[in-house]
Amino acid sequence: MKRQLILEDGTIFLGEAFGSDEEKVGEVVFNTGMTGYQELLSDPSYCGQIVTLTYPLIGNYGINRDDFESITPFINGFVVKEYCDFPSNWRNDYSIDEYFKMKNIPGIAGIDTRKLTRIIRMHGTLKGAICSADANPEEIIVKLKGMELPTNQVEVVSTKTAYPSPGRGYRVVLVDYGMKHGILRELNKRNCDIVVVPHTVTAEEILQLKPDGIMLSNGPGDPKDVPEAIEMLKGIIGEIPLFGICLGHQLFALACGANTEKMKFGHRGSNHPVKELSTGRVDITSQNHGYTVNEESIEKTELEITHVALNDGTVEGLKHKHAPAFTVQYHPEASPGPEDANGLFDQFLDMIRVNKKEGVL
């Protein structure tokens, strides 16, 4: 069965349908990772987006029970050059087609994904629609041009109630803005006593939990669409050691007086080189973000840049000059991707340990 991918600029791709028959719209983005499509499609940071994979063959090891980064996938569509009907792996439970039918996600295959990626790189991310072959393109294009992208993605993906993940070590409050399970796994691996809380949590509610540290998760969308998080952080910074990842990094910057801005096409992939300024060390990192902290806006704040992206020079890490707090734009928990930066979780626990010893907490 044929299916169309229609972009708001009028570009039309005709390909083969797989997954759900439902028509969906969203911001079209691309990811350059060669593996890890299951972790990618279950990453809540892709909420509402149509994801294009630049690697040509997807689905060859199927879908298994263990590699999800969230229980529910939030993507609105998948675009691939070729998908595998008959995956081969000892852990395989479903083909990608079977899983997408179960989760009501449409896919399109057999199109020139290299051409699509070049369009996005040239013009920036575009709104698009995955629809049936007989849909009227002119009507779809008018609809896309008049459509506003949603601003409530964090509300959609965040937990609605707090819950514990018990351990015997330091108590860490993990604020869920669209948390990947990899973050929880890394904290569990270090025996942290974790309390996961919703994105609407207040500073007072966090302090009542008597945490040793606070972790800010990744998440989808524009950080300025989560003003309650910015206000919460203003009441926390300097009180509790803090570590933020991706959206958490951007929210931390906004709370400290810096600014964020939308990128042309963002960073999405598992091979992005990042340089630590203090040591010159370069890590290959996993990334997924469409917004960045404006470098010039940092100058009048109490923040210091710790990491930069080698591909385009954008800000990849920050630390507070006086408070025990640091953040990174990339994903040290990987999933999928290299684990070069995994030691940042140990750095977070070391920061907690030092602050408890000095009597700050």
Would you kindly provide a written description of the structure presented here, covering whatever features stand out?
The protein has 361 residues and is α/β, with parallel strands linked by helices. It has 2 domains: 2-145, Glucose Oxidase, domain 1, CATH 3.50.30; 153-357, 3-Layer(aba) Sandwich (Rossmann fold). The protein contains 10 helices and 19 strands. The chain has a 10-stranded mixed beta sheet, with helices on both faces. The longest helix has 14 residues, at 344-357. L-glutamine binds at residues 45, 219, 221, 247, 250, 288, 290-291. Belongs to the CarA family. Residues 1-170 are annotated as: CPSase.
How many angstroms separate the termini? 62 Å
Query: What is the CATH fold-level name of the largest domain?
Result: Rossmann fold
- The total of helices stands at 10
The number of distinct structural domains comes to 2
Shape descriptor:
globular
Q: State the helical fraction.
A: 10-25%
Question: What's the helix-strand series?
Answer: EEEHEEEEHEHEHHEEHEHEHEHEEEEEH
- Across the major sheet, the strand order is 10-12-11-13-14-19-18-17-15-16
State the fourth-level CATH superfamily of the largest domain: Class I glutamine amidotransferase (GATase) domain
Described by strand count, sense and barrel closure, the largest sheet is: 10 strands, mixed
What structural class do helix, strand and pairing data support? alpha/beta
Number of strands: 19
CATH class call of the largest domain: Alpha Beta
Q: Architecture of the largest domain, CATH level 2?
A: 3-Layer(aba) Sandwich
Question: Strand share of the residues?
Answer: 25-35%
Using only C-alpha atoms, the radius of gyration works out to 20 Å
The pLDDT mean sits at 96
Unreliable residue stretches: none
Keywords: Amino-acid biosynthesis, Arginine biosynthesis, ATP-binding, Glutamine amidotransferase, Ligase, Nucleotide-binding, Pyrimidine biosynthesis
EC number: 6.3.5.5
Protein name: Carbamoyl phosphate synthase small chain
Enzyme class: ligase
